[in-house]
Design goal:
Elements: H1 4-14, H2 19-26, H3 30-37, H4 45-55, H5 59-63
Length: 73
């Protein structure tokens, strides 16, 4: 399965977004967001939830623990 960094980059590119777009959405500077994509920093639980909601995927999918994108209620 894919890693968190792979999934984050894949989801961003699917939406045709740049790293700067994501940094702005999350209220970060570009370097902080890049640290997520490069695997230097793993987001906390609240940020993982925010990212999963933004991309309409499960946190498990985002973390690379599942290949199922759908979120469960």
């Amino acid at each position: 399965m894919a890693s968190f960094t792979d999934r984050l980059k894949e989801l961003r590119k699917e939406k045709n977004l740049k790293q700067t777009d994501m940094a702005t959405y999350l209220g970060f500077n570009i370097r902080t967001y890049q640290d997520y994509e490069y695997g230097n920093v793993i987001p906390n639980a609240l940020m993982l939830i925010k990212l999963a909601e933004y991309f309409s995927v499960s946190v498990d999918f985002l973390l690379g623990l599942s290949d199922t994108r759908e979120r469960h209620s």
